[in-house]
Each structure stands twice: as structure tokens, then as C-alpha cells.
């Protein structure tokens, strides 16, 4: 009996300090110091409506945009998840074949970058590899009526190493890249 | 080269940080006198008790407190649709899911048969699950402190109510504040606003779930809890936005389990002994990391016949921002400790890579869960000392305690219960429609999915292989029971061993006592772990990951 009363008192104390106190401190800090990222790194239009989050992949299917990695959950940012298919599951090959066709087909000599045919863990990976973006530059350039060099220049500018000198691979944020394409190449696209 | 540098930075850096933290934990958990004992007075007033407890008293108080934890959170989860802090209007849960989730977080497992962003209110996440992430981890630290006091020959094991507050408020809370602030600066969300609704560039509506992620995620990692705020855990970009938050999270996963070894050595006053144990654990973890990183650099086997670039290795279920090392390294760290958060989808790992996380959970003592990992290693130590004593024909002694038949029986019972829960559960579900109808992949991989789920539950890890329809009542109840037994039996039995040792006269250590501070002891301990831990599970490994690997084209 004493144990129960004592346990309830300790439960109340830890609940007050570790839940209410701790959450309030971190919440206040986040909302004061980094309000933009604390609320989900949202990107908005001039009128205030939200385009998306720079951390969350969104679907792109039009030829004038660079497409993200496939998503096992259809880019559902309210119910994220991966394919959870075993790495030898034939469904992975079926999906990859369909995507290769959507990307206009490839040859063995010039294979498609693996990230464009694999779904990420949450299905919301906001990045593609620079190779994956460059792979799509021809299609994007044609749809926008510009030289591929105009596209690759923007990709090069936005490319980043996620871990600085610790990582070799370069990646690029798809939403930011497509926003840059719209901002810088909209004139040519209209002229076409 | 990239792999070697990152592994060295994460493991080496965490080892260095664990030394001062271990010293602090010894001071905080076991203050001999002086300034730290002020806190003891405060905690005694809060709990209304500070009486010295024997092993039975300590155990009863601990189990009572855990029953309260379970009940409080069961009620919060069951009633979440009537309670405040629910901006997205989450509804009621299935009762078996509430049982499973309350058991899962009370036992420090954090196996999740639900998806946080789709079904949990913010109150359930914070006052229910996050509270348990603090106090269940604190329970583990308290149990280890009590065990160490017993081995050190103290007349009592301390007082659980005081210990659990020391661990929550002096160890976990300050660390959580520091790490959560760093996570916030790293770009992690921390808000009580509900989901954001976006209209994408192509004009589609996208609902973006968010919430008080930074606070939740931090204690999830520090306390080897592992339950994600979002369904896909640390692969979710809002739960792990950058390479740097990923690195910080991996350090947070390892930090307290490592420091627990030093705290154990500190309370015993045998730091060299702790260093030998630490080295054995490090060897195991390095073997698993090497295996994981090497096996995962092979390309996705499903693409063998397709024109897909093979340079990047297997990218299914992985995030690009963590780099090539992030996924496989995390998979080993999270399963060596009983954390269970995931940084890549384990179901989509190459077959042999998938074996590494399973091996980590089968051993469950290569750092292991907060507090309880070291307790599991104590069981292996008892067995190793006994076997070593038999080999040279002397009475086995551990730090002056005579290890006899009774102690060894209890240790073996605890170690075998782990195997029994995993293999028994797997056999039942693999042989019947209970499990067969829920697997997603055919053949050996489907077997691995069932094996992994029971392994994760019994080891109180909580990671999921996934690819498993584990939301059924049968899975909820079976894994809920396995988690409860897998948590409390390996705490009860070691404390019973301590009780048995304390009742005997302690022998003076002499030249004939088995040394526990040299490489011979380390080797003996390592071999015991391999023979007992690994060989028990070899047949199951052969039916699952090994069979799958050798059947690849």
C-alpha cells in the first residue's frame, strides 16, 4: 500500500517535470529561436498559402519538373512509410521497370541512377542524387524549351554534400530545385 | 574510407563522452556523501520513503511502480479521444493495441503496432509515451545501480523510489535538454500546431503531419526506447532532417548504454573490470558494423537483370541525406543497444545485413538497453566465471562471491528464457495462420519477418522488420506478453542471484581468485557470449536470413 502511494507521488512528480516542464522549455526555445524549422520548414507563396515543406517530398509528374524518388505511400505526409519489400522481392524489379519506362528508357551502357527506382524509408525523401537530377535534365530542358546546360547549371548550383567533407555523394533538394527552375526559366517556358 | 571515418567518429566520440557521463552517473545514482546527497533528501520527501531495501523489497517497489506506469498510460491511450491536446482529432484505439502499446513503452521496448502521425494525439505522445520513455529508462538504470551495490557487498540495495528519481531527473533530464536543444537547432520540428495543409507546385493537396518532435525524439534515443513520433521513425525527414541530426542521434543511442558500464565499474570500485567488459562489447559491435556496412554496399538483388546503376549499393528503404554509412551503421547501433529506432527500413536490407540487427538482439548485451544491457552481461559473466572455475578445478568466484549451482541455475534460466520466448513464439506463428497470413514476402524472408518481430519483442528492442501485418489481435497480445516477460524476468532473476550472493559470506580475494581485469577474462567472457548467445540461434538464422541469401540468383 505504501508502495502504491509513494509510486503515485513519484509518477506525478516525474510527469510534471519530465513531461510538462521539459516540453515547455524545448517548445519555447524552438518557437523563439528557430520558428521556421520548428513549425515544419514550410515554404509559402506570396499570398501565404503553403507550397510544401522543404524537408518533405511532393509528387512531380509533369515533364518540366525534376521528379523525386518513388514513394511507397504516394507522398502521403500524413501517413508515411516504406515499401518494406525484401531486397530480392520481384515487385521491386516490376516497379523499377515501370519507372525506367516513365523516365524514357535507358540502356545498360548508361544505367538509371539507383535512387530514382528505390523508395526511401518514409517515402518522403526530399532529395535525389545529383546524378538522378542530371539524368532528367534533358527531359526538363526539352519541356521548357531551353538548352540542357541551363538546367545542369542550376542543378550544379544547388548540389550539396549532406555531410560536408565526410560524404562523397552529392544530392539536391527536389522542391527547391523545381522552385528555382520556375523562378529562373519561366520566361523561356512561356516563350516556347 | 568514408565508412571508416564516420564509424570511428561516432563510436570513438561516444566512447570518449561516455567516460565523464559514467562518472557523473556514479555520483548521481550512488552518492557516498557530500553535495550529491542533498538530492537524496529531496527525492525522499517527494516519494515519502528512503528506507534501505533488500533485493525483495527493491523488486516489489519496482514492479509496483511499473504497474502504475502501465495503468496510467493504458488509461491515457484508451481515452485519448476524450482528452485535450488532440488538434488532428485522433480517434479511439483497439483495446488489444492499447494493451500492446502500454506494455511496449512500459518495458522500454517501443514496439509500435500503430503509426504515430496517423493515430496518436499529442497528449498520448507526450504525457503517455514520452513519460514512459523517461521512467522506463530510469527503471533500467535503477536496477543496474541496485545490482552493482549488491555485488559491491553493500548491506542493502538502496531505495527504488529514490533511485528512479535520481535516474529520471539527474541523469536523463539534463542530457535530454541539451540534446533536444541541439536537435531543434538542427532543424527538427517542435510545435503543438496540427498538420499543415499544402497545395503543391502541381496543385495537389498534401497534408503534412508535424508536432512536438524534438522533445520526443531526444528521450526516445537517450533512453534506448526507440519509439518514433512518426510511423517510419528516424527515416522520416521531420524526425531526422539532416546528416548531422542523424549523427547526433546515433551518439545519443549509444551514450547511456556505454556510460552504464562505467557506472557499474564506478559503484564496484573496479574500473579496470569495467574496461574489460567495455572492450568485449566493443569487439562485438565492431564485427556487426563491419558486416552490416560491407553486406549493404552490394546492390539491390532485385535489380540484377535491369539497367540500374550499382554504385550506390542497396538504396531501397534508405534516405540519401544520411550518406552511404548512415543506414547500415544505425541498424547495428539501434539493435546492439535495445533502442529500436530505425534509420533505414530493416526489411529491405540485403539478407546478410538483416542478420546483423537480429544477432544484436539475440545477444542483447553488447551495450544493450539502458541499465539492463549491463545486467544481461552480468548473467554472461556468472556463466563465464562458473565455466572458467570448472575448467581449472577451483570453486568459481566472482569478486569474492562464490558462484554455485543456485546462481548458475538462475543465470541460465534468464538466458534461456530469452531464447525460449523468441524461438517458441516464432515456431507458433510460423507454423500456423496466426503468422503465415500476416507476412508480406514469400519464403525464407517471410520467416525472417516473424522471427524478427519476436526477437525484437523479447529483446525489448522495438524495431520492426515490418513487412508484417502486425496490427492483429494475435500479434498485439502475443508480443505484449513476450515484452513483459522479456523485460521483467531478466531483472528479477539477476536480483535474485544478488540476494543469494548477499546471504553468503564473501571470501577474501587471493592470488587464486579468477582475475577479472585481464585479457584472459575478456576472451572467456566473449567466448561465453558466442557459445550461449549466438549458437542458440544459429538454426533459426539458417532458416531465415542465411537461406534467403543462398537462394539469391
Radius of gyration of chain A from CA coordinates? 22 Å
**Structural class by sheet pairing and helices of chain B:** mainly alpha
Portion of residues in beta strands of chain B equals under 5%
What proportion of the residues of chain A form beta strands (DSSP E)?
5-15%
Q: For the terminal residues of chain B, how far apart are their CA atoms?
A: 29 Å
Mean pLDDT across every amino acid position of chain A: 93
Coarse shape of chain A: elongated
- List SSEs of chain A in N-to-C order: HHEEHEHHHEH
Globular, elongated, flat, extended or rod-shaped: what is the shape of chain B? Answer: globular
Instruction: Report, as a whole number of angstroms, the end-to-end distance of chain A.
Output: 82 Å
Number of domains of chain A: 2
What would you call the structural class of chain A?
Answer: mainly alpha
Spans of chain A of at least 5 consecutive residues whose pLDDT stays below 50 are 187-192
Question: What does this protein look like?
Answer:
The complex is a heterodimer of chains A (192) and B (553). Chain A has 192 residues and is mostly helical. Chain A contains seven helices and four strands. In chain A, a hairpin with a 5-residue loop joins strand 1 and strand 2. The two termini of chain B are 29 Å apart. In chain B, helix 1 (2-29) packs antiparallel against helix 7 (160-185), helix 1 crosses helix 9 (243-268) and helix 12 packs parallel to helix 16. Chain B has 18 helices and four strands. Chain B is an all-alpha fold and 553 residues long. Helices cover 64% and strands 2% of the residues of chain B. The chains are: A mainly alpha (192), B mainly alpha (553).
Amino acid at each position: 500500500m505504501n508502495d502504491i502511494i509513494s509510486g503515485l507521488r513519484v509518477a506525478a512528480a516525474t510527469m510534471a517535470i519530465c513531461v510538462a516542464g521539459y516540453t515547455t522549455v524545448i517548445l519555447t526555445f524552438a518557437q523563439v529561436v528557430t520558428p521556421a524549422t520548428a513549425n515544419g520548414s514550410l515554404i509559402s507563396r506570396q499570398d501565404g498559402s503553403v507550397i510544401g515543406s522543404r524537408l518533405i517530398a511532393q509528387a512531380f509528374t509533369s515533364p518540366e519538373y525534376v521528379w523525386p524518388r518513388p514513394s511507397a505511400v504516394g507522398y502521403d505526409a500524413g501517413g508515411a512509410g516504406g515499401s518494406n519489400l525484401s531486397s530480392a522481392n520481384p515487385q521491386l524489379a516490376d516497379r523499377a521497370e515501370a519507372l525506367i519506362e516513365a523516365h524514357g528508357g535507358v540502356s545498360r551502357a548508361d544505367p538509371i541512377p539507383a535512387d530514382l527506382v528505390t523508395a526511401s524509408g518514409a517515402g518522403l525523401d526530399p532529395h535525389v542524387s545529383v546524378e538522378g537530377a542530371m539524368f532528367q535534365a534533358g527531359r526538363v530542358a526539352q519541356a521548357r524549351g531551353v538548352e540542357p546546360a541551363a538546367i545542369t547549371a542550376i542543378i550544379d548550383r544547388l548540389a550539396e554534400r549532406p555531410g560536408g567533407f565526410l560524404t562523397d555523394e552529392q544530392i539536391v533538394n527536389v522542391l527547391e530545385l523545381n522552385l528555382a527552375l520556375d523562378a529562373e526559366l519561366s520566361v523561356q517556358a512561356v516563350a516556347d | 574510407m568514408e565508412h571508416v571515418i564516420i564509424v570511428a567518429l561516432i563510436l570513438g566520440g561516444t566512447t570518449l563522452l561516455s567516460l565523464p557521463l559514467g562518472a557523473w552517473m556514479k555520483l548521481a545514482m550512488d552518492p557516498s556523501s557530500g553535495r550529491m546527497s542533498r538530492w537524496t533528501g529531496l527525492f525522499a520527501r517527494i516519494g515519502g520513503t528512503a528506507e534501505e531495501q533488500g533485493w525483495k523489497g527493491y523488486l516489489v517497489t519496482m514492479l509496483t511502480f511499473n504497474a502504475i506506469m502501465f495503468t496510467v498510460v493504458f488509461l491515457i491511450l484508451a481515452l485519448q479521444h476524450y482528452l485535450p491536446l488532440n488538434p488532428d482529432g485522433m480517434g479511439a484505439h483497439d483495446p488489444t493495441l492499447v494493451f500492446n502499446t502500454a506494455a511496449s513503452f512500459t518495458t522500454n521496448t517501443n514496439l509500435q503496432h500503430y503509426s504515430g502521425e496517423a493515430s496518436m494525439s499529442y497528449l498520448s505522445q507526450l504525457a503517455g509515451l514520452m513519460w514512459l520513455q523517461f521512467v522506463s529508462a530510469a527503471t533500467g538504470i535503477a536496477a543496474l545501480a541496485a545490482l552493482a551495490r549488491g555485488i559491491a557487498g553493500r548491506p542493502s540495495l538502496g531505495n527504488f523510489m529514490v533511485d528512479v528519481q535520481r535516474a529520471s531527473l539527474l541523469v536523463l533530464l539534463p542530457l535530454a535538454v541539451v540534446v533536444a536543444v541541439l536537435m531543434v537547432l538542427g532543424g527538427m520540428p517542435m510545435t503543438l500546431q496540427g498538420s499543415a495543409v499544402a497545395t503543391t507546385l502541381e496543385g495537389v493537396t498534401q497534408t503534412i503531419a508535424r508536432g512536438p518532435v524534438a522533445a520526443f525524439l531526444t528521450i526516445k534515443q537517450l533512453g534506448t526506447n526507440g519509439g518514433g513520433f512518426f510511423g517510419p521513425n528516424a527515416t522520416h525527414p521531420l524526425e531526422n532532417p539532416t546528416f548531422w541530426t542523424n549523427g547526433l542521434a546515433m551518439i545519443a543511442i549509444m551514450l547511456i548504454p556505454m556510460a552504464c558500464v562505467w557506472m557499474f565499474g564506478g559503484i564496484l570500485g573496479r574500473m579496470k573490470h569495467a574496461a574489460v567488459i567495455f572492450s568485449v562489447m566493443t569487439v562485438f559491435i565492431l564485427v556487426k558494423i563491419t558486416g552490416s556496412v560491407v553486406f549493404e554496399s552490394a546492390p539491390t538483388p532485385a535489380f540484377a537483370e535491369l539497367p540500374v546503376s550499382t554504385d550506390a549499393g542497396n538504396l531501397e528503404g534508405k534516405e540519401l541525406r544520411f550518406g552511404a554509412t548512415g543506414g547500415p551503421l544505425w541498424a547495428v547501433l539501434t539493435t546492439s543497444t535495445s533502442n529500436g529506432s530505425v534509420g533505414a527500413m530493416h526489411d529491405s536490407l540485403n539478407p546478410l545485413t538483416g542478420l546483423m540487427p537480429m544477432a544484436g538482439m539475440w545477444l542483447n548485451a553488447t551495450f544493450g538497453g539502458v541499465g539492463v544491457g549491463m545486467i544481461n552481461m552480468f548473467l554472461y559473466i556468472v556463466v563465464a566465471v562458473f565455466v572458467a572455475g570448472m575448467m581449472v578445478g577451483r570453486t568459481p568466484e566472482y569478486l569474492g562471491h562464490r558462484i554455485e549451482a543456485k546462481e548458475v541455475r538462475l543465470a541460465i534460466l534468464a538466458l534461456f528464457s530469452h531464447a525460449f520466448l523468441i524461438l517458441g513464439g516464432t515456431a507458433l506463428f510460423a507454423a500456423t495462420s496466426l503468422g503465415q497470413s500476416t507476412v508480406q514476402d514469400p519464403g525464407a524472408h517471410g520467416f525472417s519477418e516473424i522471427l524478427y518481430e519476436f526477437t525484437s519483442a523479447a529483446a525489448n528492442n522495438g524495431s520492426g522488420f515490418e513487412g508484417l501485418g502486425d496490427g492483429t489481435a494475435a500479434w498485439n497480445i502475443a508480443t505484449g506478453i513476450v515484452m513483459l516477460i522479456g523485460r521483467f524476468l531478466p531483472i528479477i532473476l539477476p536480483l535474485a542471484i544478488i540476494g543469494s550472493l548477499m546471504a553468503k559470506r564473501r571470501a577474501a580475494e587471493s592470488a587464486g581468485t579468477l582475475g577479472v581485469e585481464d585479457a584472459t577474462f575478456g576472451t572467456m567472457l566473449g567466448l561465453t557470449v558466442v557459445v550461449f548467445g549466438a549458437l542458440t540461434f544459429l538454426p533459426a538464422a539458417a532458416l531465415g536470413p542465411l537461406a534467403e541469401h543462398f537462394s539469391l540468383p
